[in-house]
Fold this protein.
Amino acid sequence: MANMCTEVADPESLAELVRQSLTDSVPLVDYGRVHEGVGHPPPSVHTRFCQTIAAGGDGIIEHYTRDLTVRVSAGATVRQVNEALRPTHQFLPLDADEDLSIGEVLMHDVYGPLRAGYGSGRDLLLGLRYIDGLGRDIHVGGRTVKNVAGYDVGRLMVGSLGELGIVYEVTLRTYAVPEEVRVVTVALTDPDTLSRNITNLLLTDASPTGLSLHGDASGWRAIFRYCNTHGGCVVQQADLERRLTELAGDTARVESVQTLTPEADETARTAERAWRRQADLLVKVVTPPALTGSVAALLREGGWRIDALPVHGCIFVGGEGNAADALRLDRTINETIDTHGPLGGRGFRVWYNRLADADLIAPFAPPQSDYALLCRIKSAMDPHNIFNPGRYLRG
Amino acid sequence: MSLAHPVINELRAIVGADGVLADRDELLVYECDGFPIARGLPTVVVFPTTTQQVVDCVLAAKRHDLRIIPRGSGTGLAGGAVAYGSGVMIVTTRMTKIESIDIANRVAVVQAGVRNLALTEALAGTGLRFSPDPSSQRAATIGGNVATNAGGINTLKHGVTTNHILGLEFVLPDGQVVRTRDHGLYDGIGPDVRGLMCGSEGTLGIVTRIWCRLAPAPKHFRTIYAVFSSLEGACKTVSDTTATGIVPTSMEIIDGSMIRVVEEAFHFGFPTDAEALLLIEIDGIDQVLDDQLQRIVAICHENGATTVKQCADETRRAELWSARKKTFGAIGRIARSYCTQDACVPRSMLPTVMREIKEIGKRFGLSIHNVFHAGDGNVHPIMLFDEDDPEDVQNTLRCSQAILEYCISVGGTITGEHGVGVEKLHLMPKMFSSDTLDAFNRIKEAFDPERRLNDGKLIPSNRVVIELLKPTAANVPGGAL
């Protein structure tokens, strides 16, 4: 029983799996495809499962085309859903790797550069269905774009690391596929100026649909994305170029401009972050947005690679290394987010990949002030502690 | 004559004598919110100014085993801030500090009693704003916006309150202060409690401090004013516009009967023979807006608009939106009381839904006026009644129920932005399975095991039974207990 991996493709099988888990007192574990390293490891005895979609299906349960909403299986991947939506010229702007399931995206609150223009999964979410810790089928929210009936358990679930219930179906907003994506790559020597000016940027026509900051051995680059009509992209690019020095510093220069189809841009964004999946060590650090550049520069001094989202203060830092390197990186980050460090206590970090033998590193830091309440919520929703027990919350 | 409740002196010791109301005449002001059918006096009303005072008031209520009713400005429309004839009403309207505005990180930290419009005014000249803009924004507090997950006319494109809250501080019924995502960051660790708190109608905690996300205020607009000889044509225009993928800032419909009420009250120059007025606004990059505008104008004409005008100047635009926001005020001129519903339906179904609402009104002998957030599918049928006529009240409530049941049947919800309060409690079992309601109750118990905090609102409670559809004497909360 222990450690076997079970694929489930329909709610009935999922409910049965939960009931079996309750009967056997063997917890269910699903850490996702690329989030295996997030949180404390699962208990030694568990049933590992993952959700898929029924053979021959496309993951879409119902597409309300004229309402720009879609109901999908949580086991469907971002790619499956977007391919199915494509004939209607709509898409889900969940800026996540295409092979991730919708459920994994929401449970780990995955977002990317396009959050600047489209919001994150949390903003797109309208309703969901899940199996709770008593094996019951729970429906919250719905298909309307506004809904305040009952508690918003859907948003509570976003980022919950699969500890509160197993989401099997999700209703989300869709958007019209943009006519064009204009990608402007800017070389920088100083990432700090751009992030300190982020509000000024957002107040202009150059406000991007997506913005990311990348630091590696070759230097710093900012990638601005504009998803718009052709005319809109032209205006936005021109405004960016006109304001570049003011927004990003004296040394900023446009390195390249590409016009892409939305599909090609999806591939480009996946390629930009591909290194993270190969990295031995990877940490997400969250800072106030205006400090993204200075913190990223500080972390880069250790020789680490950086992907950052300066609109939202999110930094991924990592690369190749061993357990000693992990400890060194962790110390640097902790000193940065500490109350006496440059962030003055206004930041946190979550390890994504930290070598298996790095037992000395806490997966999350610093302790969060709502932790005790979250544990009470976990106990209410999963009283037998069967969903990813101990990953973040005490059951 | 009953003796004053001993909690009153304890509360005076916490907030001062001028922060406590206990005389019956003074309490009458707090017997209802914007849903006048549900009424009830609290034991006492208290006005804390700090989080610590809220904690102390909560503990005082707990010592005396009294229920707690949190309240902001009382602009709620579902009876969510009504007492059940006893309890400590904690009113946050004196918690009015805007503690900080951080332009670089786009965050404002405010106490819960800061009015929505006060924050907007404080942000003047920064280029930023707090996007939620309920019609009550002049009076409504941001804490109240959080409690009801308030919307407004901008929400179609810019989202509702939950999309604009970064963090919260709230007081639990045992006096514990919880802060969640309280550093103004755009991310957090673990389950999203702030999402759960938004729209929880004061049943889980008393929100005392809010980290508000500030967003760039749009600078360029196009506003269209389209006149239709049928409500269906206006609704179809909304549905067709949505289907193109254009996301307007707002699409608002005022129906014919409402146009005439508004025109008589305020003289905006609306055509009184029209059957619907559709206001559409788009915002974005100036050079792109005209293309979108032309597409929308074409859709208006395809659906039979008799007049389509673009508002040429800012003054006229402001007038139009002012007219929209004043519509509910105009109703007060023609009826002693009104009840507005708040169902939300899939946008593509608006033409059918509006036709059916009219039919339902006819069945109950009620004339229904409509002014609503059409772009969100959020309908607000307004029913006029005489609150001193019990039969009229009951007829209105039955009509409301019929409308909401119909909206549920077409995939809609009983409330898009006003909340459940006490008004729609009886419909919760029609919206949700018993398992889902039990799941809600389990969450409630994690926050409030003694069910002290606004019990009997939002989710049906075993301890408080409210039967709105049961005729009873006036001033009994919720119609009956």
